[in-house]
Structure formats: C-alpha cells, structure tokens
C-alpha cells in the first residue's frame, strides 16, 4: 500500500508526470566548478522541472539554499571491493537527510556491500532510524523492485539497470520490464523511471507506460558524456562511452 502519511504523499504527488533533473558532478569531471550543481538546478527549475536529484551532503545543501524544489538525495561512496555506491550505509543516509534532502535514494539491489551485507537490507534500517524520510529504492530488475516494495520503499525505479554485473553491458532501458513494474506495483508504491533516457520522447514513453515521473541526468547535465556518446559512434564503436559513465570517482 502506498504511504498514507499526508506530508509524504503530497510531496510525491507534486512530482506526478514531471521531470526530475539529476544535478550531479564529481571533482574529476571536466565540467566541475564549485557552483556548477547549483547552476544546473537553477536551470532545471527555470525549465519547469518538478524536482532535483543530487549527490553528497555538500551539493545537496548548496542546492537546497538556492532552489526551492524537492530533492532526492544520495551519497555516492565508492569502494574497490563492491559495485554498491549509492548511499551504502546508515551514516551516509543520515548525512543526506541532515543536508536537507526530502527523499533518500538507496541501492536496493542484491549486490554485496563493502560491509559484506546485501544492499537491500539497509532499506528497513533507514526506515526505522529516519521514519520521516521518503525512501527511493534504486534497483536493477523486476525482482529487486518487488522486494523493495515489499520492504516498504515509497518509490522504486530501475536506476541501477546497467550498473550491476548482470546488466553492465546494456545501453537502452528495458521498457517492457518497466511497464510490468508499473502495472504490478502501482497500488503499493510510486514507480518512477530513471536511467538511459536520452530524449524527451524517451521520457514521454515512460510516462505513457505508467511512470509517476521521470529522472534524467546525463543527457541534460553531463555534456561531456553526451559528447562521448557521439564520438563513440563516429569512431565506429571502437570504445564504449559507458565505461566513463560507470567509472568510480
């Protein structure tokens, strides 16, 4: 059953049929400046976006001070022994919440974390420790989405399709599986689309299939990766631009 909490429900409903822009930058990105994520978020609001997805307490706080839109917050922390990097610990979730995020995004896949736990196990811990937070479950497939919904995720999205060992070679979204998620989980959670959306038409397909909202990042806010996609094709696919997108920072 979808959350009955009035505040949570009103916030999530405010995102319906809208665009959430992922405004993220790493210090080794060629576009990095101290204020670049704030400029991204301001541009997103100007364009009519309904929300922002942001990484790290520092960047969440900076955006929150300047842009009055709901924020899906996460904290990317990379370790060499795992592919789990999105808000992988309770402490990182608390830092995201304290920075001002309205929604906390967690890796809810079956992958093993740096702490040797299964990523999805953190979901219920965060719900208990930060009950006021809305939980956004990042998953990579239908079964992980089903489990996240059963564990109490408020929102679920196939964000990590393409970022797990089983899916790392894909470049396009699995819209058939996404449509199945929308049909099967619509009464129990809000299903959003995130990942591998490169055009407005891609986003509209997902709304048509049942997405509550869509999240778009690289195609809007990471021009170096957009350029790399073009170069990759023009060079006859001798390299894969997604290796840069998937790189650890």
UniProtKB/TrEMBL annotation:
> What GO CC terms are in its UniProt record?
cytosol
Alphabetized UniProt keyword annotations: Carbohydrate metabolism, Isomerase
Q: What GO terms in the biological process aspect are recorded for it? A: N-acetylmannosamine catabolic process; N-acetylneuraminate catabolic process
**Which biological pathway?**
Amino-sugar metabolism; N-acetylneuraminate degradation; D-fructose 6-phosphate from N-acetylneuraminate: step 3/5
Q: Which reaction does it catalyse?
A: an N-acyl-D-glucosamine 6-phosphate = an N-acyl-D-mannosamine 6-phosphate
User: PANTHER family given for it?
Assistant: N-ACETYLMANNOSAMINE-6-PHOSPHATE 2-EPIMERASE-RELATED
Official protein name in the record: N-acylglucosamine-6-phosphate 2-epimerase
Organism, as annotated: Clostridium vincentii
Gene of this entry? nanE
């Amino acid at each position: 059953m979808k959350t009955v909490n009035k505040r949570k429900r009103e916030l999530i409903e405010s995102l319906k049929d809208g665009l959430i822009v992922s405004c993220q930058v790493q210090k080794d990105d060629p576009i990095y400046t101290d204020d670049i994520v704030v400029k991204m978020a301001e541009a997103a609001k100007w364009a009519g976006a309904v929300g922002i997805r942001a990484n790290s307490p520092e960047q969440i706080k900076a955006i929150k001070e300047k842009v009055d839109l709901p924020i899906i917050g996460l904290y990317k922390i990379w370790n060499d022994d795992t592919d789990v990097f999105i808000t992988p610990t309770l402490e990182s979730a608390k830092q995201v919440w304290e920075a001002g995020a309205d929604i906390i995004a967690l890796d809810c896949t079956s992958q093993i974390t740096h702490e040797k736990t299964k990523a999805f196990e953190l979901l219920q811990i965060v719900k208990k420790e930060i009950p006021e937070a809305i939980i956004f479950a990042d998953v990579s497939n239908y079964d992980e989405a089903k489990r996240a919904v059963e564990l109490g995720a408020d929102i679920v999205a196939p964000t990590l399709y393409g970022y797990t060992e089983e899916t790392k070679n894909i470049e396009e979204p699995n819209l058939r599986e996404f449509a199945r998620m929308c049909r099967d989980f619509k009464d129990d959670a809000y299903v959003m689309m995130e990942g591998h959306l490169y055009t407005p038409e891609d986003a509209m397909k997902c709304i048509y299939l049942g997405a509550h909202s869509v999240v778009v990042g690289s195609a809007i806010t990471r021009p170096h990766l957009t350029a790399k996609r073009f170069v990759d094709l023009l060079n006859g696919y001798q390299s894969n631009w997604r290796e840069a997108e998937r790189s650890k920072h």
